[in-house]
Design brief:
116 residues; alpha+beta; 5 strands
């Protein structure tokens, strides 16, 4: 269901957290996929996030997310660094892998959309 990219190092605890979240939220992912696909949009769904402060007092928000684009779902790690005393935000996104779109037997349109 998940294809992790080989050249990316991900802590084992984070992999477990992501895999468990995906397993427990297949139906929600499925519904989001249909909404995104039907409206020809892109979107993200946050799996897990945390806020930390670095030595300089900057706020760093680190999150694991699903990035949905048509019929592709990437698993990404996003880091946003908010520079103290400025309006500057530095964002870094790393693609960690691809999630196979969860399908359900009772969903008549899934097989048509995924095969495109």
């Amino acid at each position: 269901m998940i294809t992790w990219f080989d050249d990316i190092e991900i802590p084992e605890d984070d992999i477990k957290l992501i895999e468990e979240w995906i397993e427990n939220n297949k139906e929600e992912i499925h519904e989001i996929y249909h909404f995104i696909y039907d409206h020809e949009m892109e979107g993200t769904k946050i799996i897990y996030g945390k806020e930390i402060k670095d030595e300089e007092g900057n706020t760093i928000i680190v999150s694991y997310e699903l990035y949905l684009l048509c019929n592709i779902i990437f698993i990404i790690k996003s880091e946003e660094k908010q520079i103290v005393n400025t309006n500057e935000i530095i964002k870094n996104v790393i693609k960690l892998g691809i999630l196979e779109i969860p399908t359900f037997d009772n969903c008549s349109c899934c097989s048509k959309k995924i095969s495109r």
